[in-house]
Amino acid sequence: RIVSVSDPNHPVVLGQLELGGFSVRVGVGQYAYVADSYNGLRTVDFSDPRHPTLHTAMGSGDATWDVALNTDAAYIAMGQHGMRTLDVSNPAHPWFRGLWYSPKSASGITYHDGSVYVADQTGGLRIINVTDITNPVLEGTFPSASGTWDAAVRGSLAYVADALAGLRIADVSVPSAPTQLGSVNIGNAQAVALYGHYALVAAYDSCLQVVDVADSTAPRRVGSYNPGIRACDVVVNRHYAYVTCLTSGLRIVDLSDPTHPVEVGVFDNDEQICGVAVEGSLAYIACQSGGLRVLDVSDPTHPFEVGHYDTGEDARRVVVRDSLAYVADGADGLYIIRFEGQTAVERQSPSAQPRLFRLAQNYPNPANPSTVISYELAQARHVRLGIFNVGGQCVAQVVDRYHSPGFFRVSWQGTDASGRPVASGVYMYKLQAGGQEAIRKLVLIR
């Protein structure tokens, strides 16, 4: 607040600016420099004391939930402190340019054609004009039926993941008056991605649901991948969906037939994986307590880690452009990370080559029902990895292909060669490559 004290006995409030945080210190020169506990250093122009305006903002101690990009600008969803715009023309020195204050809790964000669409939880989907990133302006709101978490936008249509209300499709051609066209009930919808005339919905209650949205007024569910685990994010690359499943890892699902999505690969490192982005042959995953991990997904059936950066807080979402990963990291704010690692082929230099033929213990063990098996090859070989029962019969051939030297991980879903679940019990898994062989025991519990 700006208060006139020309008469110390009768101070008068001239103007006020809501900063959205808890202001603890202020210093004055040409501007007021406000130490805002949630939002960092705020510089306020009070040349007109009755209408103070935010000039710049630097630093953040608030929870950063999501991030979206457009050319030289980034937009971050900051929970109860709304949405901020940043100039990222120089990624090494991003700086805040504008702020839109949320009355609810901004958790998801996407950019499309001059506007950002902010999933504002119980506040609905907010449509904010950012043609001037220093002055974001709210244009309209699509009210929430139960809690808006994410949205994807194409043309004049917004596809909204609206928690208990499922997938809702809105006409946003008039941003000031968005209207609902159609919906489909999907319990606890958390995220949405578009694939042709399909919408892919990640949901807590039913993992991944495929919805035909060719007719936006009558969307219909046509496919499902539901192994009984919770999903919280989904992106599409080529004909694969990459689905984050919290403590159940990253699932890679083949969408060649969208009516019958099929899991083809799993990366599970026993961390809560919240967000995912894919660029080229690399997948970037935001692990809640483990930071950013980079996976080689050139072979989607065998994803493996090639890089890691510990962001130090609470990595929730990630977007990638030109090998730069923009990570929304809770109270730490926004990280911009460049991955300069080598590809799976490039890293096979003599100094980096494995020097062992090694089969690791599966994890988790016991399997319930899926588990991950890791192995290491020192030389290029044809590799066979099979699962055997205690009678010595092969119940599943997990790997049967040629491998270059390297470190590999593969998942077994507790099924036989026909995809049928096998019984609980003790099994052996055997790795064969060239004239070498290694055997270990695993336990399956259902």
Commentary on this structure:
The relative contact order is 0.07. This protein has strands at residues 2-4, 12-15, 23-28, 32-36, 40-45, 53-58, 66-70, 73-77, 83-87, 95-100, 108-112, 115-119, 125-129, 137-142, 150-154, 157-161, 167-171, 179-184, 189-195, 198-203, 207-212, 220-225, 233-237, 240-244, 250-254, 262-267, 273-279, 282-287, 291-296, 304-309, 317-321, 324-328, 334-338, 358-359, 371-377, 381-388, 394-403, 406-412, 425-433, 436-444. The model is unreliable at 17-31, 33-43, 54-61 and 342-353 (pLDDT under 50). Strand 25 and strand 26 (262-267) form a beta hairpin. The N and C termini lie far apart (62 Å). It has 446 residues and is mainly β. The strands form 11 sheets. It has a 4-stranded antiparallel beta sheet, with no helix packed on it. The chain has no helices and 40 strands.
Q: Main traits of this protein?
A:
446 residues; mainly beta
Mean pLDDT: 83
Number of helices: 0
* Percent of residues in β-strands: over 45%
Q: Give the tally of β-strands.
A: 40
If you compute it from the alpha carbons, what radius of gyration comes out, rounded to the nearest whole angstrom?
Answer: 25 Å
Helix content: under 10%
| Secondary-structure content class | mainly beta
